[in-house]
Amino acid sequence: MNTPAFDVEACHRAYREKVAVLYGGSSQTGRMDARQLFYLELLHRVGTLAAGKHLLDLGAGTSAFGSVAAALGMQVSIADDFGGGGGLNDGNKSQVRDLIAGWKSQLGIRVIESDILSHPIPLETATVDVVTCINSLEHWHHSPKRLFREIVRVLRPSGYLVLVTPNAANLRKRVSALAGKNIWDRLDWWYHGGDPVFRGHVREPIIADLKQIMEWNDFEVVYVCGRNYLGQQSKALGFLPAPLLKRTVATLDWMLRLRPTLCSDIHVVGRKRN
């Protein structure tokens, strides 16, 4: 049986009609961010973007990804301590509380406010179809070994795990390192962070690292790809006029996709072995 094509317009429509207003937008206009749309496409690729399927999104922050999945009929649980990062900061705490309330009341999302590295996931065993961890892993200070045991526990047999992170060895960072430049967050952000827990990037992986994590937890890797959403925000190319910058980044993106290990964003999808 052929898999139906990914319905991009259905995602945009769900965003406009049920999600945009939660983020201060209009219910009549607006389209999803291309990056979040791609994450929904990953779910479609493994057959989990379907009504009734259970998505657990770890470290979601304020992303609209889970909201649109819920608007499309998925059962969605979001786990985050909402302490910082992922669009969260001290200046928008009230807006975040309003957003969480809207997730619950308007979309039926279960919100688990918890330090996911330190506490068990309060979900029943083998009740989740797909777990996503998108741009969160690189912020974790402590070993995630216990968390991955929990991920394995809550996933159904043959359930999927989607890991998305920045790439520690993307093309820009390789060139910067050769030039003797620091490839990490600015030193003053780390040194003068203020928060007892630094919320920047602690350890960025490469594709081989994500594959190793899958292997350690008995997942079969079924899909690997690179994209360059972070690269589209490149300050290194900021000297170019906006139209030329857009064309240059788009061309580089298509070229780099042929070599995921050079892309700014890396994606590894694994299937739980029975």
Radius of gyration: 19 Å
Content of β-strand: 15-25%
Structural class by helix and strand composition: alpha/beta
CATH hierarchy class name of the domain at 8-165 and 203-226 and 267-272 = Alpha Beta
Number of separate helices: 9
Verbal overview:
It is a single chain. Helix 1 packs across helix 3. This protein has a 7-stranded mixed beta sheet, with helices on both faces. It has a domain of 188 residues: Vaccinia Virus protein VP39 (Rossmann fold). The longest helix has 15 residues. The protein is globular. It is built from 9 helices and 7 strands. It is 34% helix and 19% strand. The relative contact order is 0.13. It is of the alpha/beta class and 274 residues long. The mean pLDDT is 90.
Descriptive terms for the model:
274 residues, alpha/beta, Rossmann fold, 7-stranded mixed beta sheet, 9 helices, 7 strands
Short overview:
This protein has 274 residues and is α/β, with parallel strands linked by helices. The protein is built from nine helices and seven strands.
Write the layout of secondary structure elements.
Blueprint: H1 8-19, H2 34-45, E1 54-58, H3 65-71, E2 75-80, H4 93-107, E3 110-113, E4 128-134, H5 145-154, E5 155-166, H6 171-178, H7 187-191, H8 207-216, E6 219-227, H9 242-256, E7 265-272
